[in-house]
Design brief:
The complex is a heterodimer of chains A (145) and B (63). Chain A has 145 residues and is an all-beta fold. Helices cover 3% and strands 46% of the residues of chain A. The termini of chain B are close together. The chains are: A mainly beta (145), B mainly beta (63).
Amino acid sequence: MPANTSPIYSIAGRADSVAANNSGLVVGPTANTSLDGTGTLYKAFTAGSNGSYLQKIRFRPVGSPAATVCRVFISSSTSTSATATWLFDEITLPAVTLSQTASTSVFELPLNFALPTSYLLYVTFGTSTGSAGTGYSVVTIAGDY
Amino acid sequence: MWRETDSWFEVQFADGSSGFSHLDADGNCMGVFKADGTDVTNEDHLEYTCVNDNAAVPAWHKG
């Protein structure tokens, strides 16, 4: 007997960001080459008390960041050990040059899955994007169940 | 190989030591080095922060 035969929908929209979880930080200047969830990771999203449906994560360049790769981790705990934190996906972020007359490219990683209660998303960058303030605004679009 | 269009980041590693990141003209990282020129690019866990994105070419790299 199936436990659930009806689709469920999120009850409230959610947007969360690395900046909101890290005092307004523009991320990218600090590189972390680890693939096992160790070292400095930046929290991007925390699932709600009934879990959350993640639609996508969006990377908006701030300034003129150098090329890098962003790695997205799922963690079952805020103590991001190698056993609790798992590399989920990567996205290539090419070098971007700021313009005051044209929009710069924006990058999105589709997620489209349900994140269990209290699980978290973290991001790291494979190489440095530049000095402080040059990097990415990382925003997760989701909905809470 | 170093070209005049390349750029260098001065970086600080997690242990507090300093070094450099070498970028080509397209903004791609070509390598990460300790201050003495030791290449650390391929270390499994390398953590560093750019502190100056317009650093001078390191003396050891001018050849």
